[in-house]
Amino acid sequence: MPDILDxxxxxxxxxxxxxxxxxxxxxxxxxxxxxxxxxxLPIPHTKWEKTMFYPAIEDRADHEQKLICxxxxxxxxxxxxxxxPYIHAxxxxxxxxxxxxxxxxxxxKHHAHAAMASMRNPDSPA
Length: 126
Description:
It is elongated and about 45 Å long. The longest helix is centred in the middle third of the chain and has 27 residues, at 63-89. With 126 residues, it is mainly alpha-helical. It has five helices and no strands.
C-alpha cells in the first residue's frame, strides 16, 4: 500500500523539475508553456493537501507536526497569492520574472523538504 506521503512528494518533485526547467530555458514560448504547467499544479495539490492529506496526518500528528502543517498552509497561500501573480504579470524575458520564479521554487523546495521530512520523521531537523 502506498504511503500517504508519496503523492505530495511526487507533486513536489514535479514542481521542482518544472522550476528548474523554467529557470534554465530562456525561450519565451517554452517559459510560457512551463508557467502554465506550474500554475495548474498547485491548485489541485493544495486542495488535496487541505482536504485529504492534512486531516489524515492530524490524527497522528504531534504538536510540532501540527505547527508544520500550519506553516505549509501559509506557504501554499504565499505562492498562490503573492508569488504566482508576479510571475504571471512579468514579461518572461525580464529579471523580475526570473527572480519571482526563483522565489517560488525556493518556497516549494522548503515546503517539500521541511514539511515532508518532518511528517515522515518528527525527530529530523526541518
